[in-house]
Amino acid sequence: METNTEDKKPTTTPLINRELSWLAFNYRVLQEAKDRTVPLLERIKFMAIFSSNLDEYFKVRVATLKRLIKLKKKTRDKLSEDPADTFGQVMQEVKRQQEEFGEVFREGILADLRQHSINLLTENELSEEQQKWVQTYFAEHIQPHILPLLLDDTETHFFLKDQTVYLGVHLFDPKKKDLKAERFSMLEIPTKKHGGRFVKLPTVDEQRYVMFIDDVIRFCLPALYPNYTRFEAHAVKVSRDAELDIEEEVSGSLMAKIQKSLKKRETGYPARLLFDPGTPKPMLEAIMAHTGISEDELVEGSKYHNFRDFFQFPDFNLPELKYSPQPTLVHPLLEKEESLIEAMKKQDYLVHYPYQSFDYVLRLFEEAANDPKVTAMSATLYRVADDSAIAKSLVKAAKSGKLVTVVVELKARFDEESNIFWAGKLQKAGANVILGLPDLKVHTKLGLITRNEDGQLVNYAYLSTGNYNEDTSRIYADHAVFTSHKDITQDVEQVFNFFIDRQHDKKFKKLLMAPINMRDRFMDLINREIKNASKGKPASMILKMNALQDERMIRKLYAASQAGVKIELLVRGICCLVPGVEGLSENIRVRSIVDRYLEHARVYIFHNDGKEEYFVASADWMTRNLSRRVEVAFPILQKDLVEQLRAIIDLQLADDTKARDVDNNYVEQQVSPTHIRSQYATYEYLRELIPEGMEPIRKSK
């Protein structure tokens, strides 16, 4: 287990607040939606990503802040920051971003859609012909799924489903004297039952028309409330606390607890209620009275909620409004091999997703499942595709009598249901399924294949920064290694032994494993750079990760900077380190790249007096990764693979198109602009590695 050899935490360590740093990352997503050089339909997707991210943030992080605020004062005083102060700053920044989000949508996206003859109509902009069409469509496709509920003077409780949009309807001018002059009603917008959030209207004179289903309902309110003649409708949406409250006991059924917690998630207390700014106060009061939501949970939004539904926005068959195709590339060496296992005997292979095909790992598991010489297969499943080919191969292997060990992380947030499904399938097939570990989330992405070759057991390993997920492999930028290197495969075997015996006495020749030795080994590697700098030798580090939050690692980086070590940080998301502070961090530069693909790989490079060491990892430098998760960092040892990885990292360091600093300013090269867009340059670099005469595009099989 890791040792706490660091000094006690000083109170003066300069840090950027974690919550505000995450919001800064999400703002970078919004910047992509603002960027008119990004194709229009892709900008709409960035709007959806921004909204989806913010929903999850409220369900998890803001909900956690609220729980901390409710702690007793003595307990709160032990925290490094006052959660109430943080909450106030968060809400202020969220409000600012949401206002800008609204401006981007109204003044940017809508205007640009109109320029391309795509008209997002409201209920007040319909022609007579369109009015008739919408009324018919509503009666046939939407009205059967709507059940309005009147908010009367009784104490009837109305439960708002998580992440579901509702319309609060203000009814005026009754047709009958015995009806109230004003009433409030609620109805759920049936997005799922309807099959999406948008309704495409007929094209007229090459003008394309589309409506929110919300506005279709607004226009057709007279059909729902025939006893009233005037209406106002305002959208609301609740986000509920998504933190799973699980006692991770050694005994008992964790799967049953997860399933129970998933049901609780839907009824968790509200983290926020988003409402239309035009919503009248009496309506909000009626909604609060009937839902139990307090004023503290109210957050002003816009007319429309759940912008994540813009993932479903119709593309009208206009490919020019999307990113130009970037067909998946073949791997120049693996593509030629009939047997991947035989290929792994010769050398190691480094594959870069999504530029190169994910099919190679699918082929490896399928080959191993069918190979009579393979005696055992092991894998860690963190987030898998719903129709996972890898999980199916493991099921096939178990059914054929191979010893299959699968570690299924049931606490992979928002993927629990899929993981529960595959855990059940694997258990039924006869696999040894390990449902996570007590107190530790299994986040590492490993695979191990054991083969009987002439009476000798030989191991083959797959190690990756990304999940075994065919879907996300198309949009997440990751690195993976296929290897039969004895030291590495023996270390991988040790990791799987840890899952079985849970003993922390494991020794590793090549791998860094959290929580056993990873933190201490990274500390040693940084200390070596500090020592070299103190001797006047060149000393530097390039550290790429998704998040940098752990205070002990940050303090060590500050110490390295003070010693003269040059540090380049590529941090996509949270970065709590403050760069460029004289006397503390002037030798540290921080860059973040947000572009077409999600940068997901973690790469750690240490100068080592000219004998550079390269590690690729599943772990960020967050306390949870280094102390409360099972993570693995693996070395890149083969010279040609080191050169490949370094070339890709160098392109990212030179990016002056999609790179931002910690203040979200676009990076400008000090000498002259390079106009390097690293993700596109990486694709071209990997394409150039393919020999002449070989078809560069991977064809699906």
TrEMBL record:
An intermediate of this reaction is the autophosphorylated ppk in which a phosphate is covalently linked to a histidine residue through a N-P bond. GO terms for biological process: polyphosphate biosynthetic process. SUPFAM superfamilies: Phospholipase D/nuclease, PHP14-like, PPK N-terminal domain-like. Its EC number is 2.7.4.1. Residues 340-502, 511-673 form the Polyphosphate kinase C-terminal domain. Mg(2+) binds at R383, R413. The active site is at H443. It is an enzyme of class 2 (transferase). It catalyses: [phosphate](n) + ATP = [phosphate](n+1) + ADP. One of its GO terms (cellular component) is polyphosphate kinase complex. Residues 16-120 form the Polyphosphate kinase N-terminal domain. NCBIfam families: poly_P_kin (TIGR03705), PRK05443.1-1 (NF003917), PRK05443.2-2 (NF003921). This is Polyphosphate kinase. It comes from Pontibacter virosus. The gene is ppk.
